[in-house]
Fold this protein.
Amino acid sequence: MTTTTSTTEPTSGASAAIDPDRLQHLVEQAVGDFGAVLTASLVVIGDRLGLYRALRDLGPSTSAQLADATGTVERNVREWLSGQAAAGYVSHQTDPDGTDRWSLSPEQAVALTDETSPAFITGGFQVVTGAAKSDELVTEAFRTGSGLGWHRHHHDLFTGTERFFRPGYAASLVSEWLPALPGIVDRLQAGGRAADVGCGHGASSIVMARAFPQAQFSGSDLHAPSIEAATRAAQSAGVTNVEFEVAAAAAFTGDGFDLICFFDCLHDMGDPVGALRHARAALADDGAVLLVEPFAGDRVADNLNPIGRLFYSASTLICTPASQSQEIGRALGAQAGPTRLAEVATEAGFRTVRTAASTPVNLVLELRP
């Protein structure tokens, strides 16, 4: 009788042998992720150098033509184009004489150059590469629990966040989210007042101010450079019914607001209950809070999908450490889900918490005292 003994080391005390097919699948997945990480950096480089915009305007071009149009070095551009074609972000063709030409399809042009489109993706790449630059600081935050303040990240994170979220706000905020709050649009049209807490570079404030020129809008953020950027953006847009201030979420000025908004920021705050409690006190009679958070289910198992992968990863690098760096450090995380968000709102004194709308990436809640 012959016996066969597995030489595979058990893992975590388990006696099951490793499945070679599953292991191979995991390795192949990792290879794809390696390429994704490097491709993200190439997208940011291409955006900085104007390569996508130039290629869109030129049409099918050689690497030399693109380099000449952008004042860059042909050899580097050729390698970049090859990598982008392999990733599917640039189109490639070979002429009968063997000449390589590159172009952007209409879809690639929208996704990579049209900053007004909800499909614009370049800002997202800027976010993830900016966040990844803080990996050593986040490593230390794991050891100490002291967190990592938003202000300590690379500046690409601040700019990329605005570019990533702005198209979605432009597409949905005025047309879908605000109308989902009964009575709020009428009040803004009649000259009401609204506050945008954690406004960052002011994209959401400016979208609303343009849509409701009779109303007055106040944006606030603890990050002074972002407020400076928001002020410049409003001036550039010619919007005069919005003002910005540097202020913590629980200390923004003013009261009697018909609407107070939190766009993708409550989970970053150390004391989200305190922030919402302050907002509740600053509301006018029959006013509402519009709370927009990353889309998530209540259970981890609900979020084990590509969107959850993105937001859990971003939350590990950015959101959770940001909250931990502040007083209380509630650390809701970017996948808090509707039940935990409702618990925070109720703790802050809101009696009505309702899901007013949603998108594949956002959960939109209405809070009423």
The radius of gyration is 24 Å. The first helix runs from residue 20 to 49. The first strand starts at residue 91 and ends at 94.
